[in-house]
Design goal:
Structural class of chain B: alpha+beta
Radius of gyration of chain A: 15 Å
Structural class of chain A: mainly beta
Oligomer: heterodimer
Radius of gyration of chain B: 14 Å
Largest sheet of chain B: 8 strands, mixed
Strand content of chain A: over 45%
Largest interface: A-B, 16 and 18 residues
Shape of chain A: globular
């Protein structure tokens, strides 16, 4: 049986922009999709610690001053499989202020998959010009 | 490996009291109190789980549910580490008789369950632990 996945994500703000993984739909390279950095919460781990750890693992950056934005219950189907995620969404600051000067930050998933993070204008997310997941987070941005 | 368990609970208040269920920790021989509620099933919203558990446990109809908080509860029970993510709701009961009952005899997965109304002020004095920690402060 499928099981509910507990996740923690963290967005970093720069003015009216957020640092997000800048990717595309799995089968359509022209369909731009942005998602926060983050991943699974380990058993016995607090979601805030998971958000810090995942950011360190994925983009080698230390985030501080984490503030919980919301807890999202996300149920969806994708490619014939049902998913149920509970997502703790945080906002945080980079400890290393020089990261705010970079236009892109390289990252790597635990699977070895490389990705790029960009600063995305929040208005582009709110106007749905760029697809953003989880959508529930938009209301608190 | 152990897994994180999503739970949904519902607090019901009446005249300065709150409805809680008796529980017992065998290793520390500690009596404690917990809200009505239980596991969130795969694909189920936590609010629906809180309503379903209220029906299953005390045969009550929960309405007007409002999410108070989400608590990450990492604890030791009977020598084992547990990790729960608990959606804490507050709600009302349709059945007035449940508000008047001295003791509510319910069912928890086939085991007898006892729920009672406890004065919130008395609970805040710390006579008996209420878990997950932090819920008394929400009332």
């Amino acid at each position: 049986m499928s099981r509910t996945r507990l996740k923690a994500v963290c967005v970093v703000r720069r003015g009216n922009e957020l640092l997000l993984i800048d990717t595309h739909a799995p089968h359509d390279e022209n369909f731009r999709v942005c998602v926060p950095v983050g991943g699974g919460i380990n058993f016995g781990e607090h979601s805030k610690d998971a958000a810090v750890r995942e950011t360190l693992e994925e983009i080698s950056a230390v985030v501080i001053n984490l503030k919980l934005l919301m807890v999202i219950e996300n149920m969806f189907s994708y490619a014939g499989t049902d998913y149920h995620e509970i997502i703790f969404a945080y906002e945080g600051d980079f400890e290393d202020e020089s990261l705010y000067q970079k236009e892109q930050i390289q990252g790597i998933e635990s699977t070895g998959q490389e990705f790029v993070c960009s600063w995305i204008d929040i208005d582009l997310i709110k106007s749905e010009e760029i697809a953003f997941f989880p959508t529930q987070l938009i209301e608190v941005l | 490996m152990s897994k994180i368990r999503p739970k949904a609970v519902c607090l019901f208040r009446h005249k300065g009291k709150v409805l809680l269920v008796d529980a017992f920790e065998p290793e520390r021989q500690e009596r404690f109190l917990i809200p009505v509620g239980g596991g969130v099933e795969f694909g189920e919203h936590s609010k629906d789980a809180a309503v379903r558990e209220t029906l299953e446990e005390i045969n009550g109809t929960a309405i007007n549910l409002n999410l108070l908080t989400t608590i990450e509860n990492i604890f030791l029970f009977d020598g084992e580490v547990g990790h729960e993510v608990v959606f804490v709701y507050e709600g009302d009961l349709v059945e007035q008789a449940l508000y008047e009952a001295e003791v509510i005899h319910g069912d928890e997965n086939g085991n007898p369950l006892i729920a009672r109304w406890y004065a919130i002020e008395w609970l805040r004095e710390g006579h008996v632990p209420v878990y997950p920690e932090g819920i008394l402060e929400m009332l």
